[in-house]
Amino acid sequence: MTALPAKEQFDVIVVGAGPAGSAAALLSARAGLKVLLLERGEYPGAKNVSGAVFYGSAILNQLIPNWWEQAPVERYICRRDIAFMSPTTAVALDFRCAGSGYATAPYNGFSVLRPKFDRWLAAQAEAAGAFLLTSAVVDDVLWDDGRVVGVRVRREQGEIYGKVVIACDGVNSFLAKKAGLQREFHAHELSLGVKEVIGLDPAIIQDRFHLTGNEGIAFEYLGAITEDVHGGAFLYTNRDSLSLGVIGQVSSLVERRKRPYELLERFKAHPAVAPLVRGGKLREYSAHLIPESGWAMQPKLYTDGLLVAGDAAGFCLAAGLYLEGMNYAIQSGLAAAETAIAACRRGNFSARSLAVYRKHLKQRHVSTDFRAYRHAPSFVNGPRLQNLYPEMIARSMEQIFRVDGAPKRKILPLAYRMVRQSEIRPGQLLRDAYQVARAYLW
Amino acid sequence: MVMTTHEEKMRTVRFRVAATPHIVVNSEICRNECSVHACVYVCPANLFVPLDDGGILFNYEQCFECGTCYIACNQENAIRWSYPDGGYGVTFRES
Amino acid sequence: MRIAVCLKYVPDPGTIEVDPLTGLIAADRLLYMLNPADESALELALRLRPPQGTVTVFNVGPVEADRLLQEALAAGADAAVRVWDSAISSTKPMITTILLAAALRAAELPDLVLCGGHSVDRGSGTVPALLAEHLGWPVVTEVTQFEMQPDELQSGRMRVQRRLARGARAESEVTLPAILGLETGLVHLRQASLPSLMRVKHTPIPLYGLEELGLSPQDLHFPAMTLHEVMPPRPRARVMFTPDCHRSAPERVAQILSAGVAGKAGQILDSGTPEQQADAIIDFLRQHGFLEKSP
Asked: Looking at the structure, do residues C214 and C78 belong to the same domain, yes or no?
């Protein structure tokens, strides 16, 4: 391998200043490395969209103690609701915890607005010594002797060299594909989220959602909310606004010929949702792809001189009960930084040297979580669990509570009739029950 | 104003329009080889317009850069996709 | 040749949201940018700059505008100056131009000053003229093009094209030093190269306060026009059009589709031979003066 001391302008080049990239840049810079953090937007967060609840408070607290006191957070999430919906009914599981870790430091999660939060996190990386450059879109990696030695920014004299490149360039990662680590995706592996931020007076939010002070709630909806499109919906409270959106599998949107923003309108009009959003004013509409297949769409995570983290590595856990991405983004960014720091100490940036990335991911419980829930996405994001069963639960409750002079049925015959009316075969039901158990229980 | 039309939604988003398009649609392929035209339905910004001759007209100015069209398209090379130049394109303020 | 360009940091008009009740702009929703006309001015200055020349950019504004001046440096400007002082309370054209004139003098007067003709926020279009008044220089506004041949560089004369009303254009000549006010959207500013973009990131921008400019707060106390309120266009009352109930259904549908707008009175020639129809058209054109009347 030819030595290229003149070309090694940076120790680490991080592409993408989202949570993964900024966390990687922050940790690398703190270790004394010369770090370049590249962002294609006008500012970090300008291109970024998620729900967004950030469930990584405790992780970030280890990096920046009491980070929530200085960061632009909206509300701490101490209530969570999972609602099963039919077109006219909703049955909800309501969780509220006033206990430690949820309603007290370090908190479990915060609702955030990404353009503000990501900008703040990138500023922390900058304060630690990383060189943040915005308005810089990266088109390709630079190779030398079979090893990644830098990136090409789409500007005059855009070649820039570094010992390690960490690709945190998001779900569409051009870098992972250019480096041959990622294949082209199938439409069933990704979901499209469309979202609105709706302005609402803080006092109304508190009254309407039974919240005190800065408490917040996260609603997740399953069932007939997206009609026959495989997907779900969410609604989160911010300080003076609501973030709500609909998620639909891309292949399913194509098959059903559904326009995502029309599903969003129908969601807001649902009798269980309409009173929650009433009187609000649309502040911003947005859309983003979600790498929902997790484990199945994970790229090769490293090659000579290159590491992949965050959404670019498919580190997004979308498995019914869980809808988490930013925490894994930060954890994988930190794991990549640890790998880069160790490689810089050794002076060896070969794939063999970077293979410890796997170990660091395991230590940070990223790969272990994705391995444990590897069966969930393909099944949970399928039609029956996301749409059909939740709707059946909602319909059953409607039957159970109904008093109309007809004889009361016991639950088992009722359930039997529900299954009969749907087109599910009993065998399929059993198989699904087994799969749910395998996905979540053991 | 909770219920909004698609036009009202798009008016809340800020775009800094680049001089050149970052997505190019090969309308020949759309016209001759594609009968699905998935892009027309899935695009959250509703930027793909079906033409009378079976082709597709694409407007890049209000693109969210989400990549859904590229993922949904079942034709080879019908959509050439990259990001806009640095600093251009969609700029979210609150999402 | 020394060229100065005045740059203004303005809110992107697409991000301006006015609360209809209070009339206030939602400040937290604003995103800022370089005024488009000033962008043209900077690019044209860079193109005009002869090998020995310099381009210096000036801004009157708070510290947030440093980003803008750094971008101008990255694009190729040789130097940047920002003017601000805690005593400055407004960026009205009158005050801005007093400050700009003082800053231009402090940095040694240039040969040519380029300004965007209008800003997208205030848009009074008075800065070039006021600046000319303070400096006692000639000014040309609504400029769309200008050029200087090498011999004109020697003689200090410049040819300028101006936009007039209804698409007319005027060719003028102006003797330097002079001020030009440029139209919006003439050219785009070039993309800075990666090394220049990285170089300017931490380049400090020299700041001129009132003291450095030899001004006192009294100099800015000018009995200028005060803007009280900007009112959005008053919405017109909508009158629902109702069709004439005596007409047949197709006629009523046609009336509704026309939204009550009566078409221009005309005649449809659907009968007669082609020759007769042609004669009717010629008659019509003669009657309305499009063709000379036959003797």
From this structure: yes
Chain A positions touching B68 (Cβ under 8 A) are 190, 192, 250, 287, 289
Report chain B residues whose CB lies below 8 A from the CB of A285.
4, 9-10, 12-13
Q: Which residue of B has its CA nearest to A193?
A: B44
**Distance separating alpha carbons of residues A320 and A436, to the nearest angstrom:** 10
Using a CB–CB cutoff of 8 Å, tell me whether B85 touches chain C: yes
Domain total of chain B: 1
Residues of C near A (Cβ–Cβ under 8 Å) read: 29, 31, 191-195, 197-198, 201
CA-atom Rg of chain A in angstroms:
23
Note whether residue C124 is domain-resident: yes
Q: Do B87 and A171 touch (CB under 8 A)?
A: no
Site from C10, C12, C120 to mutate, B interface, most B CB atoms within 10 angstroms? C12
- In the DSSP assignment, the letter for residue A248 is E
Mutate to test the interface with B, among C10, C18, C30, C31 (most CBs of B within 10 A): C31
Distance CA A317, CA A324 (A): 5
- Residue A184, C-beta contacts closer than 8 angstroms, at least 6 positions apart: A177
**Tens digit of pLDDT for each residue in A167-221?**
999 999 999 999 999 998 999 899 999 999 999 999 999 999 999 999 999 999 9
Domain holding C72: CATH number?
Answer: 3.40.50.620
Instruction: Give the end of a domain, one of C186, C220, C254.
Output: C220
Least CB-CB distance to A133: which of C29, C31, C201?
Answer: C201
What is the Cα–Cα distance from A150 to A142, expressed in whole angstroms? 5
Band of the pLDDT at A75, cuts 50, 70, 90?
very high
* A310 DSSP assignment: G
Structural domain that includes position C88: 2-220
Do C31 and B85 make contact, defined as CB atoms within 8 angstroms? no
* Stronger pLDDT, C102 or A420, i.e. the higher one: C102
pLDDT tens-digit map of A76-88:
999 999 999 888 8
pLDDT digits (tens, 9 = 90+) for A21-73: 999 999 999 999 999 999 999 999 999 999 889 998 999 999 999 999 999 99
| Mean pLDDT of chain A, nearest integer | 91
Which residue(s) pair with C146 in the sheet?
C160
Testing the interface with A: which of C21, C191, C194, C199 to mutate, by most A Cβ within 10 A? C194
CATH of domain A10-72+113-184+294-364: 3.50.50.60
Residues C94 and C139 reside in one and the same domain: yes
Residue B69 lies in a domain: yes
Residue among B79, B75, B77, B49 nearest B62 (CA): B49
> Cβ of B64 and A172 within 8 Å?
no
At residue A426, the pLDDT reads 79
Q: Give percent of chain A with pLDDT exceeding 70.
A: 97
- Chains touching B by CB (3 or more pairs below 8 Å): A, C
Q: How far is CA C172 from its chain centroid?
A: 20
- What is the least distance, in Å, from the CA of A418 to any CA of chain B? 33
Which of A37, A156, A192 has the highest number of chain B CBs within 10 A, making it the mutation to test binding with B?
A192
**Burial, C159: exposed, middle or buried (Cβ in 10 Å; 0-12, 13-18, 19+)?**
middle
Please give the angle made by the CA atoms of B13, B17 and B18, to the nearest 5 degrees: 150
pLDDT at A1 over 50: no
* CA dist., res. A347 & res. B20, Å (int): 42
Residues of B in contact with C12 (CB under 8 A): 14, 16
Strands C139-147 and C178-182: parallel
pLDDT in tens, C228-276: 777 777 777 666 667 777 888 888 888 777 766 665 667 788 888 989 9
Same-domain status, C195 and C290: no
Residue A280: list chain B partners with CB under 8 A: 1-2
